[in-house]
Amino acid sequence: MKIAIGSTNPVKIKAAQRALKNVYPGAEFIGVEVESQVGAQPIGDKDTIKGSINRAQAALKKAKADLGVGLEGGIIHTEHGIMSSAWCAIVDHHGKISLGGGMHFHLPAVVESEIRQGKELGEIMDHLTGKKDLKKKIGAVGVLTAGLMTRTKEYAHLVRLAMVKFRSPQWFKS
């Protein structure tokens, strides 16, 4: 079994490994550089979902894998302020697409201002904290929860949620 993750970001690769290693013992996990085709910072769930599907499909094809996993972080605007959002898509060669999403948490107003100027959340958090490549480490969620959560743990959760159609196909027959 070969599982391709549509990113070379170690957080995304590790999240897929953590979520799927017991489901597919002995699977080979490969990070593949692909484009989301939705821009560096997707705004809204529609674009974030599209980005995760694009990543999963491109990784599946590029790596000639059995499964493709796409993880995409985005931003949503709510009546309560700007929030982070993330989606995972898992795809196979039969065209099956299964999604898992969530990871909603508030972002500070200073982030919203920077997002409106076209910047990406990871870049903004690096600037605000003075640290480098947070999106490849604990992520904004790790910073803003003061270590209660990490991007890897949250993304692994989304990968598990995205397995529903593969783990329980009897509930999703056409």
Keywords:
globular, Maf protein, 5 strands, 24% strand, 39% helix, 174 residues, five-stranded mixed β-sheet, alpha/beta
Structure, explained:
The chain is α/β, with parallel strands linked by helices and 174 residues long. The chain has one domain (2-106, 151-172): Maf protein. Helix content is 39%, strand content 24%. The chain contains seven helices and five strands. It has helices at residues 10-20, 45-63, 109-116, 121-129, 139-144, 151-161, 164-167; strands at residues 2-5, 28-31, 67-78, 81-92, 97-106. Strands 2-1-3-4-5 form a five-stranded mixed β-sheet. A hairpin with a 2-residue loop joins strand 3 (67-78) and strand 4. Helix 1 (10-20) packs across helix 6. The protein is globular and about 45 Å long.
Summarize the structure in short.
By secondary structure, this protein is of the alpha/beta class.
Strand order of the largest sheet: 2-1-3-4-5
CATH class: Alpha Beta
Radius of gyration: 16 Å
CATH architecture: Alpha-Beta Complex
Kindly report how far apart the N and C termini lie. Answer: 26 Å
Count the domains. Answer: 1
Task: Fill in the CATH topology.
Answer: Maf protein
The SSE string, one letter per element, is EHEHEEEHHHHH
